[in-house]
Amino acid sequence: MFTIGCHLSSSNGYLAMAKEAVSIGANTFQFFTRNPRGGAAKAIDVNDVNAFLVFCKEHGIEKILAHAPYTLNACSADPSIRDFAKRTMIDDLERLEYTPGSYYNFHPGSHVKQGLEVGITYIVEMLNEVLKDNLHTTVLLETMAGKGSEVGRNFEEIKIIIDRTELGCNLGVCLDTCHIWEAGYDIVHDLDGVLEKFDTVVGLERLKAIHLNDSKNPMGASKDRHECIGKGFIGLEAITKIINHPSLRNIPFYLETPQTVAGYKEEIELLRSLYIE
Length: 277
Ligand code: FE
Ligand code: FE
Ligand code: ZN
Hints:
alpha/beta, TIM Barrel, 8-stranded parallel barrel, globular, binds fe (iii) ion, binds zinc ion
């Protein structure tokens, strides 16, 4: 089954997001758990969540993907920033218990001048405090473009974090097509090779979600600039292969292209027409 959605604004609550998703032909969606630049989250409205859960059942929405604020930096050199990342994640995961079975995606972080090893150590430290055996949410590490000192620029770095985390067995991966392309993985000419590499290093069973984006830059640019589907250096032909690839076609896809909601609707229609049922 083709599970496709996009990033939606969470400002009007859960039910509003689900309705918006259905109105644009999506059967899943992604949202920020709070203002993407951080700050306090709105309190959970239990009535809204309950109505949302009923609506999802009626409309075949099975999985949703919550995205942590992208400014969270679990491996900052500043202990107060690391502490903020930890407290935000604990709070987000508590609130996600209202929608059990969701995914929660985060950017591993930027080590700045401390070096990769220190960065990974802090990320693992945070995950060890945040992950609990009884959580009903799967936490996903996002593959990054490698801008600046981003951790998670290659599959090996992701794997080290998973291996060193006590409850790493519960972690998954969200693969961002723009990011891995800009990180130097040739998904245009060698999608099979890239996925084999992922399988060897991390294991395809860990791959839980895909951020489906084109890129404004050539392979290896490490700049992290998303482009609309078919308008960038990845292109529609490669994206068609990605959504239909036997190893990917049953994983949920999330658009994070620079689009309006109306634009997302058009991209979803286009992708549905290219997906081989
Ligand atoms: Fe992201
Ligand atoms: Fe992404
Ligand atoms: Zn990005």
